[in-house]
Each structure stands twice: as C-alpha cells, then as structure tokens.
Design goal:
Layout lengths: L2 H4 L1 H31 L1 H10 L4 H32 L2 H6 L6 H4 L1 H18 L5 H5 L14 H8 L3 H28 L5 H33 L4
The structure holds protoporphyrin IX containing FE.
C-alpha cells in the first residue's frame, strides 16, 4: 500500500481514481440538477431525498475526502515534476502536440476549486449545513430543502450566470485532459485506443458542461419571463 504515496506511479494512481470518482459525481449531480429544468416538484423531491439523511452525509464526507486527496496529490505531483525538470520546464511548455489544458492542469484546477468554494457557499451552506445545524430556515429565509428557489434566485443574476459559465469552461478544459490522462494511467493506453480515448474525454467533458450550462441558461431565461 505504501507505494500509493512513496512512488510517482502510486501518486498518479490516486489522482486517476479520485478523478474518475469525481467525474461520476459530476454526471450524477448534473442529472440531478437537470431535473429542475423539467419539473419543480421532481427537484423538490430530489433535494428532500438528498438533505441531511445519513446516506447523504456519508456521501458528502466521502466526496470531501476525494476532493482533498485529488487536490493534495495534484500539488504533490506538480511539485515533483517542477523539481525534476528544473529549467527544462520552459522548453517543455513550447513542445508541439501538447494541449494547452495538459500544460495548465494545476492552474485550471485551482480555478475549478475556487468556483467550487463559491458554489458551496451559494448552495451547500444554505441547505445541508443549515439542516445539520438543526435550523429550519437559511439566511435567505428559505427552507433548507428549497434548492429550487435558490437556483431561481442565483441565476436571475447575470453576474452569477457569468461566474458559473466561466467555472464550467474551466471544468471543461480540466476534464478534456483529466479524463484522458486518468484512463491512460490505469493502463488503457495502446495505440488504437489513444485517439478514441481523446474523443471520449472530449465527449464526457462536453456532455457535463452542456448539462450544467442548460440549467443556468434555462433559469436566467425563466427570470426574464421567457418560460
Ligand atoms: C447549474 C449548476 C449547478 C447547480 C444548480 C447545483 C446545485 C447544487 C445544490 C442545490 C446543492 C446542495 C445540495 C444539498 O446540500 O442538499 C449542491 C451541492 C454541491 N455541488 Fe452543485 N450544482 C451545480 C454545479 C456543480 C458543479 C459543476 C460542481 C462541481 C464541480 C458541483 C459540486 C457540488 C458539491 C461538491 C456539492 C456538495 C454536495 C454534498 O453536499 O454532498 N455543483 N449543488
């Protein structure tokens, strides 16, 4: 087991496994939020179901552990690469055929994390956290299970719409390289599949981005009275 933190491949393995688990969360969370576009009552049911129940709390703790591991190991690996390459890293930056996303994973990852902190403040702190604290109302005077009203209010504000769309773009870049890199680390890297895996990463990243974007755009247009 100690190879998971002692060797470079072990550390990459942790990045890949936590990364893939986070992608699965992103897909689940996207599907859950798409429900809001189709049915108000359906979304209320989902947020009620995922409130402060024991299974939702276990999932939240697991999710937090995944994010922390993914982030700590990202810094660790980047630091290791930085030390190993020394001045050569500048030459590396210009190498052809290496995608922009792959060269900027840490910076894009930090933007993704910044967006996540803002997002948790906007939603989680006004929902699950309020329930955990045993309160029946959040700072906006809403029930902690009323995710629908939170979405409606947030995306009626064009500033937040832009902040979220920039965040989704950062996630898209991060995933186009991340998904590909994770599957390669897990050993699926023969020549035939290399190109296919690239396509798969772009498809996964684009589906995720379009799903979340639909929610933001729908609620912004709804606030203008178009739905
Ligand atoms: C339109 C976009 C999104 C909407 C409407 C949305 C909505 C929500 C809501 C309502 C919650 C609170 C759930 C609760 O506390 O019961 C939540 C929590 C959360 N969201 Fe999002 N979300 C969106 C995008 C994202 C994205 C892109 C990510 C990740 C990069 C993300 C990560 C999280 C996390 C980690 C939590 C905490 C989950 C937990 O308590 O277990 N969300 N979101």
């Amino acid at each position: 087991m100690s190879f998971l933190w002692k060797s470079s491949i072990g550390r990459k393995l942790i990045m890949s496994i936590t990364g893939i688990a986070l992608v699965l969360f992103l897909l689940f969370h996207m599907a859950m939020n798409m429900v809001a576009v189709f049915s108000h009552a359906g979304y209320d049911w989902v947020t009620e179901f995922l409130g402060a129940n024991w299974y939702a709390l276990v999932a939240t703790v697991g999710l937090a552990a995944l994010v922390v591991l993914h982030f700590v190991y990202a810094f660790w690996l980047s630091w290791q690469n930085f030390r190993a390459r020394g001045m050569q890293r500048y030459a590396q930056r210009k190498s052809p055929g290496v995608s922009w996303a792959s060269q900027n994973m840490l910076v894009i990852g930090i933007i993704v994390l910044g967006g996540l902190v803002t997002h948790l403040f906007n939603f989680w702190s006004k929902m699950q956290l309020v329930e955990i604290m045993g309160q029946h109302e959040n700072s906006l005077g809403l029930s902690p299970t009323d995710g629908y009203s939170l979405i409606e209010r947030l995306f009626a504000n064009p500033f937040y719409c832009v902040v979220y769309l920039v965040w989704f773009a950062a996630i898209w870049f991060h995933l186009t390289h991340g998904v590909w890199s994770a599957i390669q680390t897990l050993g699926w890297n023969n020549e035939i599949w290399k190109k296919r895996l690239r396509v798969i990463s772009y498809v996964v990243a684009t589906v995720i981005m379009l799903g979340y974007t639909t929610v933001v755009v729908y609620f912004y247009l709804k606030s203008l009275g178009l739905f």
